[in-house]
TrEMBL record, chains A, B:
The protein's name in its UniProt record: DUF1116 domain-containing protein
Superkingdom of the organism of origin: Bacteria
Source organism: Solirubrobacter ginsenosidimutans
Signal peptide per UniProt: none
Organismal lineage: Bacteria, Bacillati, Actinomycetota, Thermoleophilia, Solirubrobacterales
InterPro entries (alphabetical): AllG-like (IPR009499), OXTCase_su_AllG_h-dom (IPR024033)
Length: 467, 467
């Protein structure tokens, strides 16, 4: 480009950016450049010993395993192949079994919103005629609760899946993962209500939307989920709290099939639900998470999942092993008028698997609009992504940010770095009412507790010591 | 938000941003802060006199008229109401008339790509059996050429519209404007080729796509064009060179109607054409431009339009009066491999009406991806928007940029500022081959010549002097 006199004025644009950021910093009363001076792991001697082993004598093994883990995440390209009744595809989802989000939990300890969703699912399945009767069945243990994650299924928020619900089937080679269809707004199960209208909607899913989606996918052929996500990331989505643009990309993929298959109500639902793509991102992320099986020695986080009571974390190096702690409160959030933090349920949902593969809270820089949910602006959103880069093993080559000059999103959360820096993954999430059964009351960022990451790397170090 | 230790690390994000921008500045070898020191209007004495009158004794009248003009642009909300045969809705588009982009031009002077498009349109209409015969008709003046803009019609690039082509009809109250359906990629008329396949596509538009769109809009109801554009602006579109996200928003609006109306080929075309929304933005922008009728005394630019030979500019204060100059060369562009600037046609198309209402080149900050077409990055894109703010009367309240903390795009190009600062509107545009009939060879930014803006304000000053 020939230098022109008018490019001189670009200096003004810089000044604008700077001033904005400076305001943001001032507004948050943030002091400057101290993070590197904090003692590692807050100076905890036991943790320092664990970290010394994991960076020291096991450093080479862990490093190689982590590089392998990142390569597996980045190399996994799940495609949406069909939509089918959960019972017909999800392993072990038999009659009398209900899946839920988060680590394993007994009925007595299930939080209020998840409880309501489970009761609605029992009614939907016809296993009980009323919610009271459903509660008896669950109390008596006549219905089995299982974490969706242990059945290759992930669900947002309450994350309930029952055998008759249609689910997305995504696959990469022989590896498959599943997620329910997103229910959208209202008194839905995922938001912890599950009223009669929500149960009717599930029947519409089962009888109309699900079968039509299956026919659309059959007509269209498989859809590359992360391919769409990578585009949506440069259309203002971070793919967890906001998937609007990516949902529209899905609609573009399906448009010709919609014309062929028809179904006004189904098309209207797909187009009208801003979160419709969320569950696809989740299923694909779960698929990538499953690809980490066998990365022995890796401290990369393969799973973060919450049930509103506890958060469970898993490492690529120890597949299937939960490290749990009380679920976070979502205090970095915007609540709807009249609601206070006391009303809020604790952090809930399987959706944090999204952050494990480099989207959601890792990719906040992509979605300045989302920043308003935690009182921030575009610079604050970008800074959150950079913060997450501190605890990740790599930058994604698949998910890049045009508005950050094509830098990749942070990918491969290294539990060692989480423990060392005491910086935990931030999950962009909705907030449910904790007890009134009124559904979503806000959205924001859930900062995960450090305890399960500490416990996980302690176990990993012990396992590596024993080898 | 509670201050947390980790917010300290935001400083790194600042550093990243700074460094990137500094690199961009260095790469462009740009000196710093001199723009305010240049003599106004390059020191031209005649122009200084005109500007002195327009800012001085006419300043109040012009300022009030410009504020009115901006209010009219911002207050205009065109809705897409239907798609219909051009002859049935476009005033004066009778049998034997062809519309073209840009200011009026005689057949002998029409540039090569526009000539090819006109010949194809004659064949499409069945007025001639061959392009040679079509050329004879045009040479003999048996077909009338007219600028689309004088018939409330705008078309991208060659901008050809013939009576049987279906056109978008947008309206705001009693005010209507029109644009053809975007033809998409290939050897199309808008790209200055118009081969037999392109003519077949026009028949598909006339017989299938157009009527189906009309039925879809009837089923859906009118669509707020700028409402969608405002959303798309925060999904990576600047709405001139890139309309992908906004096109998907349109698809979302139409999804249920697609299911009802059917038509696989039509749906596939709408979904597959990345520029499908462009012509809607143009028609809506033209509608807003028409709303400027009666802003007497205003120096706000109501129209910039090019035919590949000349650019014509109009001011809100002198509606219908063209100020012309040779069309710009699009030298700030990325050309496809093997092509050089010598191959490129001059700047062409009615689409610059988009820049007149605050989108396209005004909104480059929204679309960092587009920046790559002129060798820039996100910071360069943002700087281009700030440069345009220098020559605009206001910031849009309708079109705001989330990635710039919701600042509005510059709106209401003030021809006084253009002449004074010698900074002309930048139009994001495609580049056509100038003579080989091979269609689009690139895309970039066309910097308009200053001459027509100078001529326009000279005439405006004279008119105000006479009052």
């Amino acid at each position: 480009m020939t230098p022109r006199a008018d490019v001189l004025t670009r200096v003004e644009a810089v000044n604008l950016g700077l001033s904005t950021f400076a305001d943001a910093l001032r507004a948050q009363d943030a002091p400057v450049v101290q993070v590197d001076w904090r003692p590692p792991a807050g100076g905890d001697a036991t943790m320092l010993d664990v970290l010394t082993r994991l960076w020291g004598r096991h450093g080479r093994v862990v490093g190689a395993a982590n590089a392998d883990a990142v390569a597996r995440i980045e190399g996994c390209s799940p495609r949406a192949v069909t939509v089918a009744a959960a019972s017909s595809v999800v392993p072990g989802l038999e009659d009398g079994v209900l899946l839920h989000s988060g680590p394993p939990i007994a009925w007595e300890r299930v939080c209020d919103p998840q409880r309501r969703a489970l009761l609605a699912a029992v009614v939907f399945e016809g296993w009980a005629a009323s919610r009271a009767e459903a509660a008896s069945l669950l109390e008596r243990g006549e219905i089995t609760l299982a974490p969706g994650n242990e059945h290759d299924h992930v669900g947002p928020m309450t994350g309930v899946c029952s055998p008759s619900m249609p689910v997305w089937v995504v696959e990469d080679g022989a590896r498959r993962a599943f997620s329910t269809l997103n229910e959208g707004p209202g008194n839905t199960l995922w938001f912890g209500v599950g009223d009669d209208e929500a149960v009717s909607r599930l029947r519409f899913f089962r009888d109309d939307l699900g079968p039509r989606l299956a026919r659309m996918l059959e007509h269209r052929g498989p859809i590359d989920v992360f391919g769409l996500a990578a585009q949506g990331l440069n259309m203002g989505d971070e793919l967890h709290m906001r998937s609007q643009a990516t949902g529209n990309l899905l609609l573009r993929e399906l448009a010709a099939s919609i014309a062929v298959v028809g179904g006004e109500e189904a098309a209207r639902f797909i187009a009208g639900n801003h979160h419709f793509f969320l569950n696809l991102t989740m299923a694909a992320s779960k698929c990538a998470s499953l690809a980490l099986d066998g990365c022995l020695g890796s401290s990369v986080v393969s799973l973060i999942s919450r049930n509103g009571v506890e958060v469970g974390v898993q490492l690529a190096g120890m597949p299937g092993r939960w490290f749990v702690a009380p679920a976070a409160t979502v205090d970095d959030a915007l609540l709807r008028g009249g609601h206070t933090a006391d009303d809020a349920a604790r952090d809930i949902g399987d959706s944090a698997v999204i952050e494990c593969i480099g989207l959601g809270g890792m990719a906040l820089a992509a979605a300045p609009v989302v920043a308003s949910f935690f009182g921030g602006n575009a610079a604050a959103a970008a800074a959150r992504t950079e913060l997450m880069a501190q605890i990740c093993a790599a930058r994604s080559e698949r998910f890049t940010l045009a508005n950050r000059d094509h830098v990749g999103t942070p990918v491969g959360i290294d539990a060692r770095l989480v423990a060392e820096l005491d910086v935990t993954p931030q999950i962009t999430t909705g907030v449910l009412h904790g007890h009134a059964g009124t559904g979503q009351i806000g959205a924001g960022v859930a900062h995960q507790p450090v305890a399960p990451f500490r416990a996980a790397i302690t176990a990993l170090a012990a396992e590596l010591d024993g080898d």
